[in-house]
Amino acid sequence: MKHLLPRVPKYFKTNLHPHSTISDGLLTPQQVKEGYKAKGYQVLALTDHNVIVDHSHMNDPDFLMLTGTEVNINEPDMDRFTGKTYHLNLLAKRPDNLWSPLKKFGRFPQAAEYEEKTQHEKMDVQHNPESINAMIAKANEKGFLVTYNHPVASCHSYPDYAPLRGLWGVEVRNSDSYYFSNNEDNFNIFRLLRNFGNNVFPIGADDTHADVMVGGAWIMVGAKALTYDCVIDALEKGDFYMSCGPEIHSVYVEDNKLKVTCSDARKVCMLTHGRFARSVLATDGPIQSAEFDLTYFLNGTKDDPNAYVCVMVIAQDGSYAVTPAYYLKELL
Q1: Which of 134, 172, 272, 327 is found 20 to 30 A from 258 (Cα to Cα)?
Q2: Residue 62: how many CB atoms within 10 A of its CB?
Q3: Helix (H, G, I), strand (E, B) or coil at 134
């Protein structure tokens, strides 16, 4: 038996994309923490726009703050409603890593007090894939995990995201954008980036600027302990799944079969990079498990270095959970 999820016995409910009064949020960092803690979260990265702050002083034995920022790169003279913009979350692998690719923080005067502690790279980043890739590469070099945020709300299309390289994650569900437009489900963008050979992970996040969207989408991180190093290690390895509702209890391979257990579902899918997708549908009530024979998939893809499978669990109300994509070497 080969376990894919969980690889450790403990999950920590995590959100990597809320905002506070340090940029354009309506709640203080402490209020944001308290709101998430009340909803059962244990890990939070405050990603205020274009400002990076170490919030580790807010840690307590059952709650961990990660260090991050959301960097905005707009197209020139961007129209407020239809203009394009790259929004990228930079998640620091160390809490005291306060590097920023920007020349300065920008339009939030309340962030000025954090300027002196920030190590500004002063990159001239432009709204085009080549420039964004250079910034992503530098962020990776400096010790950050980079997530591509809300492609739909950014007014992006295929030419904007297909060339991106070096990403760690892509927001499959951004609950703030989904709440206001019902249009920020990006699983196909995740699959596309994977098909191009990117080892990118599916992320669920709130992007909340108030308390209305606390708990709309999240990731469940399988870390050995609630410490900065353990959580970052789990994130780098992909020991987590994203959800906006269902729970995935286990995913494992046994006797050439992919087996899944989960909370009540109307459909469990094994999705791949090609035409090997399979589904198990509920017939006489919700299902809590599914099994997929991998023989056909493995025989047809054994020479494809980009071949992968991932699992999607869909609840009765249409909410879903998605695992990372697993390459062949992880299945065998």
Answers
A1: 172
A2: 9
A3: helix
CB 144 within 8 A of CB 97: yes
How far apart are alpha carbons 2 and 309 in whole angstroms?
Answer: 14
> pLDDT tens digits for 244-267?
999 999 999 999 999 999 999 999
Closest CA to 209 of 17, 46, 18, 52: 18
104: DSSP letter? S
Which tens digits make up the pLDDT trace of 152-191?
999 999 999 999 999 999 999 999 988 877 788 899 999 9
Numbers of helices and strands, H then E, in the chain: 8, 20
Residue type (1 letter), 121: E
Query: Token digits for 174?
Result: 């951004």
What residues pair up with 223 in beta bridges, in sequence order? none
pTM beyond 0.90, yes or no: yes
Q: Edge-to-edge, what's the strand order for the sheet holding 257-265?
A: 2-5, 248-254, 257-265, 287-293
Residue 54 in 3-state DSSP?
A: coil
Helix (H) or strand (E) run with residue 330 in it: helix 328-331
Residue 159: phi and psi, rounded to 5, are -65, -20
Cα-Cα end-to-end distance for the chain = 10
Separation CA 58–CA 140 (nearest Å): 26
Neighbours of 206 (CB within 10 A): 25
Residue 220 has phi, psi (to 5 degrees) of -105, 110
Under a CB-based contact definition with an 8 Å cutoff, are residues 322 and 310 in contact? yes
The letter for the amino acid at 101 is P
Residue 210: what are its φ and ψ, rounded to 5°? -150, -160
Q: Helix, strand, or coil here: 13?
A: strand
